[in-house]
Amino acid sequence: MLHFFPRYDKDVSDQPFATELRRLGVPHRFFGASLNLRYATLPGLLLRVYPTLAWFALRSAVRSLLFSRPRPTAAVVGSDVEALVFGAIRLLFGLRTLIVFETLIITPRRSPRMDAIYRRYYALILSLIDLAICHSSGEVARYAREFPASRCRFAFVPYGTTVTGAAGLMAATAAGGGMDGAIVAAGRSGRDYRTLAAAIAGLPCRLDIICDTAAAVAGIAASPQLRVVTGCFDRDYIAAVARALLVVVPLSVDDVSAGQMVLLQAAALGKARVITRTATTLEYASDGEDALFVAMGDVAAMREAIERLIADPALRARLGANAAARFEREHSTEAYVRGLVAAIGAP
């Protein structure tokens, strides 16, 4: 019996994740809630998001680990706060349920002192859980090396997602006259928007950077060619990607998972993509086959790749079609569920 704790809806029984669990014949139960975990500032994260997560984790852990029957074989949680709460309750009551932490990402801090505290915090979490899911094989090796005393097992499961209504959005975009001509970039973690802004300067294109965090776009000046779009979420965000001429994912970190969600959402919508080459992105795309890779911080290379795609509609179409096919094959929610269940069941 596997327990899951979705934070985006109370009832997810009709979602692809649940559908695939049923198809696989995996006994499971969901303890869902609809939480607002968006934030734009550090105080918002610390004073609103973390307390919300902690209360959700406490209620969920009590319902799942203590009061549910049959008790779960494994509880699959999705954040460090939940992992800490579930692990502590499991230890306190001497339970045997496995605690699985989805999407472990440990990002180095800039201050050595803060980085040391941060690592001690994660060392504590890893001492309380049994399995940590990573979305790059490099992270699995790095965490095993950096936390050798951890009781936790690390497993690589390629990230997967669902873009609801992707086919309809693509059809509507085509029926409306095609793409709106804007290049789209999105996200906040590990982004290098300065390189992208320099690369598109003077090119015959517009750039929309969809980002709500001021720090990620610090130093980026709006202009007739470039705008920073805030408050663009859910269907509005997906629609913006569907309308895009192409999608760029510029990254500033090499060995930490970043950009995967945007990469895959763009792929699901059949978009040509320009991507910074990192240890993690190489596991999600192939240069010249379903994306164009550029070196980190290389303005000239990024400019050349963008120019190439602007000028060559056939290349955009080929890369986008290959990306969509690979997404369905390797990175759909269904593929992710199969990988996750296999990792939990592995010895």
Reconstruct the topology from this structure.
Elements: E1 2-4, E2 8-9, H1 16-24, E3 28-30, E4 33-34, H2 42-67, E5 74-77, H3 80-92, E6 98-101, H4 112-128, E7 131-134, H5 137-146, E8 153-156, H6 166-175, E9 182-186, H7 193-200, E10 206-210, E11 226-229, H8 234-243, E12 246-249, H9 260-268, E13 273-276, E14 292-294, H10 299-311, H11 313-331, H12 333-345
Parallel strand pairs: 1-3, 1-5, 5-6, 6-7, 7-8, 9-10, 9-12, 10-11, 12-13, 13-14
Antiparallel strand pairs: 2-4
Q: Which descriptors would you attach to this protein?
A:
Rossmann fold, single chain, globular, six-stranded parallel beta sheet, alpha/beta
Could you describe the 3D structure shown?
This protein is of the alpha/beta class. The chain folds into 2 domains: 2-160 and 333-345, Rossmann fold; 166-331, Glycogen Phosphorylase B (Rossmann fold, 3-Layer(aba) Sandwich). 45% of the residues lie in helices and 15% in strands. It contains 12 helices and 14 strands. It has helices at 16-24, 42-67, 80-92, 112-128, 137-146, 166-175, 193-200, 234-243, 260-268, 299-311, 313-331, 333-345, and strands at 2-4, 8-9, 28-30, 33-34, 74-77, 98-101, 131-134, 153-156, 182-186, 206-210, 226-229, 246-249, 273-276, 292-294. It has a 6-stranded parallel beta sheet, with helices on both faces. The protein has a 6-stranded parallel beta sheet with strand order 11-10-9-12-13-14, with helices on both faces. Strands 2-4 form a two-stranded antiparallel sheet. Helix 7 links the parallel strand 9 (182-186) and strand 10 (206-210).
